[in-house]
Write a structure and sequence with these properties.
With 120 residues, this protein is α+β, with helices and mostly antiparallel strands. The chain has one domain: 3-Layer(aba) Sandwich (Trna Endonuclease, Chain: A, domain 1). It has 3 helices and 5 strands. Strands 1-2-3-4-5 form a 5-stranded mixed sheet, sandwiched between helices. The termini are far apart.
Length: 120
C-alpha cells in the first residue's frame, strides 16, 4: 500500500469511528460496483448514507464540497442507485462528505450531511 493510500485509509477509519459514535450501522466500506466506489455506506433509522471521505494534511483551507466534482457526484449517484436496488433498501438516500485534516497525531473532522443531491 502506498503512503497516499495509507493516508486515505487513516481518514476513512476516522470517518468510520465518527459514524459508529453517532449510532449509525456500518453497511460497507470501499464498496465497489464495476468501476464505481463508495467510501462508506452507513444507515440509521431514517437514512441510508453514501459518504465520500476527503482526507488532507496540514492546516489547509479546503472546501470539501468543491473537491467532490460533478462527475464524482454522478458516479456516487449511480453506485447508490445500484446498491439500493440490489439490496432493496426502503430508506431515504443521503449523500454526505466527511472532510478530515490530519496534522501529525491530531485531526479535525467536518461532517457535511446532505452535501449534494441528484440533479435528475
Amino acid at each position: 500500500m502506498t503512503d497516499k493510500q495509507e493516508f486515505g485509509r487513516r481518514g476513512e477509519q476516522l470517518a468510520l469511528a465518527f459514524y459508529i459514535e453517532n449510532k449509525y450501522t456500518i453497511l460497507e466500506q470501499n464498496w465497489q460496483s464495476n468501476h464505481l466506489e463508495v467510501d462508506l455506506i452507513v444507515k440509521n433509522d431514517e437514512y441510508i448514507v453514501f459518504c465520500e471521505v476527503k482526507t488532507r494534511s496540514g492546516n489547509l483551507l479546503i472546501d470539501p464540497q468543491a473537491s467532490v466534482t460533478p462527475q464524482k457526484q454522478r458516479n456516487l449517484f449511480h453506485a447508490a442507485n445500484h446498491y439500493v436496488l440490489k439490496h432493496r433498501i426502503a430508506l431515504e438516500v443521503r449523500f454526505d462528505i466527511i472532510a478530515i485534516i490530519l496534522n501529525g497525531d491530531q485531526h479535525t473532522l467536518e461532517h457535511i450531511p446532505f452535501a449534494f443531491m441528484p440533479k435528475w
